User: What shape does this take?
Amino acid sequence: MKLELRGITKRFGALVANDHIDLTVEPGQIHCLLGENGAGKSTLMNVLYGLYQADEGEILLDGREQHFAGPGDAMAAGIGMVHQHFMLIPVFTVAENVMLGHEQTRAGGRLDLDAARSRVREIADRFGFHVDPDALVEDLPVGVQQRVEIIKALSRDARVLVFDEPTAVLTPQETDELMAIMRQLKESGAAIVFITHKLREVREVADRITVVRRGAVVGEASPTASDAELASLMVGRAVELTVQKDDAVPAGRGLEVRNLEVTDARGTVLVDDVSFEVRGGEILVVAGVQGNGQTELAEALAGLAEHVRGSVRLDGDELVGRNVRQVLDAGVGFVPEDRNEDGLVGTFSVADNLVLNRTDGPPFVRSGALQLRARDAFAREKVEEFDIRTQGIDTPVGRLSGGNQQKVVLARELSRELRLLVAAQPTRGVDVGSIEFIHKRIVETRDAGVPVVVVSTELDEAVALGDRILVMYRGRVVGIVPATTPRDQLGLMMAGIAPGTEGEAA
Amino acid sequence: MTATLAPTPEDVVQHRTVTVVSRKAPIALGVVTALFALLLLLAARAGDATFRLASEGDLVALPDVTVPGTATAWVCVALGAAGTAVAALLVARGRRVPLWLSLVLAVVLLFGFLAWAAAGSAGDIPVTRLVGGSVLLAVPIVFGALGGVVGERAGVVNIAIEGQLLAGAFCAAVAGTVTGSPWAGLLAAVVAGVLVSLVLGVFAITYRVNQVIVGVVLNVLVIGLTSFLYSQVLVPNAETLNATTRFSRIAIPLLADIPVVGPALFNQSVVVYLMYLAVPAIWFALARTRWGLRLRAVGEHPKAADTVGIKVGRTRYLALVVAGAIAGVGGAFYTVVSVSSFGKEMTAGAGFIALAAVIFGKWDPVRAALAALLFGFASNLEGALSIVGAPVPSQFMLMLPYVVTIFAVAGLVGRSRAPAASGQPYVKE
Assistant: This one.
């Protein structure tokens, strides 16, 4: 089925998320939609899927104009979507998730689960992977959950398939397998829209590439274009793709983690016997696929985790067992993974957010009263220093772009006297310009002699930023290797295969 | 393809797990046993206790069981202590305390308590009536809890169960009296429950007001409205508006003749039989039908439901209508089964206990109904104890159902998980 979008425009208030976007996807073709976070790719696809109504423009399938009042209409017309955040119900089985919305029933209104099971098996067999139709979705690894999403779309005979940032949660190997599935779908004549911001993947599978920037199509590129060309098209200027840094000069004791174990309330060991050390002036990147314990490790270092055993020593001082205030006072700076949830108070001003963890005494609080003048002077200085693009220091931080929000967090954490910096996913959802800036500041912190721990799920970032890389898998350390390790090997480590033991799971 | 090197999803290593042992069970058992022993020491009672297992006119009349009160109670204390020790040992070894152990010990301690309370008393403990009365007291709670389960599984917290019960009771009284038919009363109660539900729906689903607040306000509204109408309209016209014909009891042949439980369970009115049908029916509808699957989907992950073409708002409204209808039936119980007239605030918090039963029953209709039965039993115990003249202040016994509710919800329920989107309005971005 041929998909055509003509002049799609979608506004949210004053913001134009999509500005007269044209896109044509031929059957048997993988069409990449490349753009930064916030460029409007997902909005466009939500319009196509009937989740949003376009303000202007039309959607055509095989030349016929379509009007989708909701996702149900889009699906009926043959559009399937593999969502970035899986649209699966965790407590349902695979079969139930696949049948949901177009259930077959037997006598007495009973659900025909057998039909759904055989449908799941049939589609899974077609692509040569195995999914247990009776497994609960929440018990499945994310890679398998994604296959359930694909099965769900295919079980409705989708002829146009949209993959929205499908590789963000996958290991490099799972990504390769997904690419194989996408090629197979393409062979069978489906039209595929592949949304991503990862250049490597684009060049690997794309037949055509459309680049989107700030809600508008800025050009088409051929799959043979270089990374630098694609990146500059995506960002609108030449981009530095590598991080400029000298070799690390480790000094001092720094951070020593011994046999750290973090357990959740249900008894799952999320961080399992983790030991490592980071000396002053060194960046250790904790790499791994999302959800393998990196988040919990970072939180444990910041004193935020419950049920922690083992030892975390900073310059010889034990941190485990101390509360968050004491950990902060010990000189730990923490950039949390989810800045909206844990890093900032969205309705507070930029100035308030900049002093959020320093409200326990001078200079910002004296005898229980906020020192507004000191706060504002400090805020102005930091806005300048960190190049935070805001209308003013009184602007609610929630109104800033992701990159500028992250700079506020970073400015707050780096402006204290640090003995350790822990940054979890510091560049997630951040524009390329801000990424460069954030990386530069992290390297500067390292060069000042502070031990730095960065959690990253992006292999590119891990390799560019780290001096050494610690790979985690299912809560355990697969290995700690120099950043010069070949990417293939890092990829295998992210799948749990320790260096030197290839071919068998760790 | 490098896929050969990647582990297939079947043999991926999972996170290691350690058993999280809850110390709640041995502590709770130990405390209850110790308190009971203390009670026996401080207020010793002499004499025998008699448990009457038959009621008048039984086909198979079981003989009464008489036990020495204090001695039996001490034996139960010993059993409780032994059970506590076993539970403590299990916990010390890092194993879980099985639920049946706690349940058996609870029954043993209860038996001991009754033996102590009835010791030396002229009255017998009417076991038949204890069971039957529990079922009757539990009926509105069961219906309320079923309504609560249906609403919450669809993602709408139904705090307004109390209001639905009360509105149902009121409308059943008026309609039942005016038409002279308890069936009309039942129907009116259903309509009343649905109306309360729809008001909740308009605010909670359409206008996305905080569901807890709307529910609480609705309860207050219904209490105020029925109290006003009761004193202004029903009291002056009690004969013409507030004197219903009640459903008569129907004995089910054979089943009603089962010793001890037969008369209590199977010589009841049609509303009670409706309850027996409603519990499995709701379970089936939620677990096995398209309607139930969609309803649960909407309560767990409304956006996912939306992306497969399910209308979230409509599904939630329908669930609320069904929930209101069920709760309404529970309300009718008060005025066309239990007594034959409406009284001010006659539901007396049953709706809130039903809410607790929903949580205690982990949002499952069958378990919620069992929890409601437990609460019914706790309420009924007070009556049984006053018959034997137990030396427990009646005010204390009146608190019992609520104390049981708090403990049940706070401690004994174990790990339970509410529907993920319960209480959250669905906002299409």
Notes: Chain A touches chain B through 62 residues (CB under 8 Å). DSSP finds 17 helices and 22 strands in chain A. The longest strand of chain A covers residues 251-263. Chain A has a mean pLDDT of 88.
